[in-house]
Amino acid sequence: MLVTFLSENLQKTISFLNHAVSLRNQLPILSNFLIQAKNGKLILSATDLEIGIVSEVSANIEKEGEATVPAKSFYDFISSVGSQKLTLESRETELTLKGGRIKASFPVSAAEDFPKLFEKRGEKLLELEKKDIDKYVGRVSFAAAIDSLRPALSGVLIESAKDGLLFVTTDQYRLSYQKTSLKTTGELKKPIVVPARLVKELMFLKEEGPIEFFYADENNQIIFSQNQTNIVGRLIDAEFPAYEKIIPIDFNTKTKLGREEFLNAIKICSIFARESANIVKIAIEKEKITVSANSPSVGEDTVEIDAKTIGEENEIAFNAKYLIDILSALEEEEIIFEMNGPLNPGIFRIPEDKNFFHLIMPIRVQG
Asked: 314 lies in which domain range?
C-alpha cells in the first residue's frame, strides 16, 4: 500500500472515527483502525462490535492494500502533525508515515482479522437534514437507559404512524416522545429499536448535508450515511415497552415558565439535593414556582421563579438530574409543565411543537 494525502483531510474524520474504537480490549483487533487503499480512496474503519464507523478520505492511491494499526497511537500522531502532505506506506510488519521532517512507523495486524462491518446498506428509509437530527434526536436520545437488563430500554423506538414518524425513548423513570411529519422513503414494515448510542453519534457529525437512514432487514442492521461517512449498528431485537399506558390523559395543573430560569433554579437546588437522593421539590402557585431542596449534612435552599398557572396549585418532587437533562436538551425560551397530583407523572411540553412531550415519574416524599 502506498498512499499520499493531506493530513488535514484525515484530521477532519479521525476524531469521529475514534468514537467506535473498543476500550475494553476483549479482542485486540478492535483496538485498531482498519486502513484500506482501494478504488482510488483511502478508507478507515473502526468498531467495538456495538457500533462501527467507516470514513473515506481524499488521497492519491499509488498502490492498493490494507492493514490495521493501533488506533490510539495512530490517532494521536495524526492529530499532532499539523497541516502537511503525508505519505503512507505499508509492508508486512509495519506501516510508515512520512512528512516533510516527520517519520513514524506503526506495527500492523492482518486486515482479514478485522470484523466486516457491512456488505450492503440495504433499503433507504429516510433522509434528514442535520438540523432536524439535532432537534429530534436531541429531544429523545438522552432518555434511553445507559445500562439495563431490558435491552429495549437502551434504544430509540422508530415507528411509522398514519401521518408521520415517531421517535420514543424511555428508561422506566422518564419518557421522551417526538412525533414528526416525516415520511419514510422506503417501507418500514414494523417498529425498530435502534441503539441510543448509535443514534447519539449523529449529533457529532460536523459536515453539512443530509443524513440518510438505510435498513438492511436480512442483517438486522441500520446504517446512517452522510457524504463519505457511514455509521453502522445492529438493531435491538427486543420488544419496546407499551409506553402509551403511562401517558396521562388529563391534568389539573398547567404552568408556563421560562426554561433557562427554571434550569438555573434546579441546578442551584441540586447542590443541596446531592445527599438526599438528588430530590428537588417543586411548589406551584398561581404566579410563581418555588424550587427547594434540603439535606441534613449540607443544608437547604429555595429558589423562586415567575410562572403562570392555570388550574390547581400543586406540589411534586423529582430527581434533579432528570429535570436538568430535559431542560438542557431543549432550546426554547418557554416550556409548559402539566401535572395531576404529586404521585402522578409530570409532563413537559414546548409551545412551538405540540407533537413533543417529556414525561418524568415523581418521587414520593414525606412532609
From this structure: 247-360
